[in-house]
Hints:
The complex is a heterodimer.
Chain A: H1 2-24, H2 46-54, H3 56-60, E1 73-76, E2 79-82, H4 99-108, H5 123-126, H6 131-144, H7 165-174, H8 191-202, H9 208-211, E3 234-236, E4 239-241, H10 250-253, H11 256-265, H12 277-283, H13 290-302, H14 322-331, H15 338-346, H16 348-351, H17 377-385, E5 387-388, E6 400-401, H18 410-420, H19 433-445
Antiparallel strand pairs in A: 1-2, 3-4, 5-6
Chain B: H1 12-28, H2 36-39, H3 56-69, H4 84-93, H5 124-143, H6 152-164, H7 176-186, H8 211-224, H9 236-241
Amino acid sequence: MIKLLRILAALALIGVVVVLLLIFLPHHLTEPQEDLAADWTPEEGQGEYAMILGDCAGCHIGADGTPFAGGQPIDSPLGPIYASNITPDPEHGIGEFSLDDFRAVMYDGVDEEGHDLYPAMPYANYRKLSERDIRGLYHYFMEEVEPSSNEVTETSLMFPFNMRFGIRMWKWVALSDPGFEPPFGDEVENAEMLNRGAYLVEGPGHCGACHTPRNLIFAQKGFTAEDSEFLTGGVIDGWTAPDLRQEGTQPQDWDQVEMARFLATGRNAHAGVSGEMELVVQYSTQYWTENDLLATAAYLDEIGHDVARESDAEDDVPSLSEEETVTLLGDADPEMALGPRLYLDNCNACHFSDGRGAANVFPQLAGNATVTAPVPRGLVQTILEGAELPSTEAYPYKLRMPGFGWRLSDEEVAELATFVRNAWGNDAGAVTAADVAGIRSAIEDSPEGHGEAAD
Amino acid sequence: MSSDVPSTRDFRPTRRGFLQGGAAGAALTGLAARARAQDAAEPVPLDQYEPQFFTAAEYAFVLAATARLIPSEGDGPGAIETRVPVYIDLQLGGDFGQAADWYMEGPFQPDADPLLGYQSPLTPAEVYRQAIPVVEEFCQNRMGAGFADLSPEDQDSVIKALEQNKDPLSGSDSGAEDTEVVESGAGGGASGGSAEPATSQPILSAELRDFFSLLLQNTKEGFFADPMYGGNYQMQGWTYIGFTGARASFKEWVDKHDVPYPLGPVSISGERA
């Protein structure tokens, strides 16, 4: 008995020591990836463009639209994490940051006081930024952004996630090596373009933060295309961030110009952007250069897997072929099941019986990643609340799909969603009325809930 | 009209017609359990409906009158099965009754040429409120009973007279009593300056002369308007004429010639039939 107590006491002591070390031991910070002269300055516009690539505005824009004033909540499973003020205001922003402090944030997720940052900040991806982009960003935020004295609500998650030293342990496991390694050698045709695409996707674009699955401790499963699960789909804000690599996924089916067009305008011949990706298009990719967009599209095409995604094992809903679906809807038989009947009554006028919609206007439902997503939240939320394509420079008009939550019961939405998930060759699991009810209340509870679905 | 045509007295035939209409409606919707219309709570029967605008006497008149304008004994549903009186009650109690979006500032010339449109200072609600007692009094004096208690044939003759706004017996030998009715009903101004021959006095004054056309128009609306307004119950009006409601999705049918479109209607709120 005494022996056991001794062991327990020893373990407790070791625990305390480890925690103290975690808290007080200085961080080992990542070195610059390139030796640049101390007086090196970025070309005009380079810093701003690096900011655009990194989509800093998407999270750090102030609630009133003030650039980079911070304060917007990012919903995490553990509670809201508030984006910080990254204007050069010395008190409320990052005006006191040295270049090394700034790099430590971007590479290691450590702020100037040595606190570990929550991984809502995608430093796991920004670790791949070049020193030139780091210097450009630092120059941009220090010299070109207007200071704002906006004071941001302090993030306070529940115990134990408010113990920031825990993040330090997490980072040991969750982060990959810093720096970007161009994956394509000279033997590959287009190597320069593909390497640029790889840099954009893996680094500043931080596509993997949403589109790569995460493991049990919420670490991204892979940071480069060498990892087979990289960009094979994740979950963001309850929505499926679609798989970008498997055979049959949209970037693999679309030609590269259409992929680039999607990122540049939020719409293309097949699809319209939805969910969190709207913000990415709105603040970031629509301003990427055409070359960078084409490089991104070429890279995504290059890293496609040859195998089709495994079909959902629990899917017991028979899939209809395109021809069967067109015939079913075209016959308009009064005895048809509720799902296709609801499609005719609510959807068919725009998305049509062939499920192809209209280029740049009505998204195609056949093969649509939001429609067939493993987690149906995106589809159900779109049916309930509608959706709006963001205004982009190429397509300023915000095309709006109305919501149908006021018109359809949970059972009806479930029938309709299950139908479109299994029509035109789509093959995804059924949606239940309970799923819909849960999503309805989740939308109502969310801070940005429009309440349209509540009626 | 044959003698076996039921009267609307006591609503008994009305209720029967209503039940028949309900059964027909259910049959038209195909599998009743599937349609949302069937999930909704059964509305109160018309004879238990508590009007928002009408008094009990006015409501009894409107029930009886609309039942003659779109009778239940035709080859389709009638005003009663489609709950037209509910629609009219809700409309008169709402913006329409108040003429909320009409120009109502005058000058008013109620006896202007009808081609010049609505010229009365009265709102539709006021027209109904003031005209129904005049019509009821006309029925009492001419037929010896209120409108709802008349035989269908007599109700039809009253409606015809209303449509013409001419008292068929006025100026005849039927006695001073009738003339008095006409004068009291006509009110000031209606007879003055009228080019009508003396043998044909108006039943309603100029300010009320649009009552019949309002009633007919509102009855048609109640039969065909979206069910969210209280009429066109279970979209029977639409089903009867083959109108598909708020679907707006027929691209696939543009090229199908001489093929009847098979699918029933959908309402704005998503009700199916």
